[in-house]
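Q: Hi! First time asking for a complex rather than a single chain. Here are the components, and I think there are two in total. Is that enough to go on?
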Amino acid sequence: MTLEIRLAHRFKGFSLDVDFTAPPGVTAIFGRSGSGKTTLINAVAGLLRPDRGRIVAEGRMLLDSDRGLCLPPHRRRVGYVFQDARLFPHLSVRQNLLYGRWFAKLGAGAEFDRIIDLLDIAPLLDRRPGALSGGEKARVGLGRAILSNPALLLMDEPLAALDEARKAEILPYLERLRDEVRLPILYVSHAMAEVARLATTVVLLEAGRVLASGPTLELLADPATAPALGLRDAGALLTARVIAHESDGLTRLEGPAGPLWLPHIDAPAGKAVRVRVLAQDVMLALDPPGAVSALNILPATVHALRMGEGPGALVQLQVGPEMLLARVTRRSAAALGLQPGREVFAVLKAVSVAQENVGGGPSGPMARQGPGG
Amino acid sequence: MFEALTPDEWRAVALSLRVSFWATALSLPFGLLTAFALARWRFPGQQVLNGLVHLPLILPPVVTGYLLLLTFGKAGTVGAALDRWFGVSFAFHWTGAALAAAIMAFPLMVRAIRLAVEAVDPKLEDAAATLGASRPWVFATVTLPLILPGILAGAILAFAKAMGEFGATITFVSNIPGKTQTLPSAIYTFLQVPGGEPQAIRLVLIAVAVALTALFLSEWVSRAIARRIGAA
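A: Yes, that's all I need. Here is the structure of the assembled complex.
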């Protein structure tokens, strides 16, 4: 299912003007606050009527201002997961979950049990929203949206209101949702770590315009978009599979780019994961370094080089079929004679990869979206 | 002093209860609508409406009663029309007392409901809409349950006010025993007669009992609702 979005809307001192197509899977709308993310998603939900626009979800017209068509929110079949959960305080958790189902004219069947199971909310069913923790509210909000039988899921920074521990608690549920509930998801976020873990496609929004869009692996490995993402946040993704948990606490992974050793990853052997490697954590060497503490040394070829305005440079590396980004100084780039085609070794400390940067990679046909894929 | 009430006294108590009940029940839909209009909608003349609603609170009740007499009396434009077309008459009739009580209690009712409406987060209503609820359903399943405590508070306040209304009522429909003599009018009458004081005091006690019952009832109901909503 694809989603075509074309919108133009003007506020005081701000205008949104976007035109893109979201392919199946999770499409992350990434941008700073004030870039128009929420305006965009509210227009898709029908909570905001844009000046002009056309929104088509799998051939179903939700909005077409040229023809004066604008479906009201309740007829759009979009499940909206809000940042503040917005559970109904006068209803129990169970009633909240069944609220949308009732309007979708569905009974509480097998699907209900499956979603309750998936989100681990069975023990909460008879409680009131007021008695839930932030993480529990977020899970119930997710369940409520999915159970309304939507054709499309919208998520507006569902994790932004949570602390780091709660985020880490919810992210695996989002990954399971993405993989098990086959719904297209529009995911608004300004947190790169979440986007890197969840998204199949990224739409980069800045001041109401689409700056770049494309498959996540490709976009995050593009040195041209890195400055817009924030240099400290720049980093490409490697795909890999968990091979074994070793006795000294390390996890061994194997991927198209080669073997990787990382601090213990909480996933069973055989599980496909995505590893986000921050550009500033990658060191480059011309020869394979001998006695060095870094555990991961990957042979690579310089694919592109982008000099920054300051002292830095971004190097795009081809590692097997995948791409990696390295952030070095221009001085080092010159000293090593870096240029496209140059063979180097990418050195990565195992401990530099934080737990939050390893996530379950999307399974199924969307899993492999390497450069050019 | 506490022997059984005389038939006249009973009639005054019963009449007051009837007047207050109908005044509250019939003004509730209008109160709800007005509260929403003032809290949620933006339209030209909103401030005028706000002023009109509050007018009975500020005007001397005698003035309100006189204006009612001018408008809804036998010779009044509205009163005459209603009498001709629907056979509804207010002048010197208990329905007139109910109308006067409703008008006087209206600002209190609207204020209580309006506060409740303003406290409802429109974001919850948006959430309900994305879950498939059309506007009437959003109102019935989200808005209404959330403002229910305010509606009850407003209704009970209006009822209590209607029980005590005196000035506008006596001006509009006079003080006819058995027809338009409400509890306050009866107390007033007894106080005008030498030796009527014991009877007046009995009615005063009844008035106090009714008011306190209404107050406790409202407290109890709103606490029960708050517990259901999970706010308590």
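A: Residues 7-119+149-229 of chain B form a domain with the MetI-like fold fold (CATH 1.10.3720.10). Let me know if you'd like any chain examined more closely.
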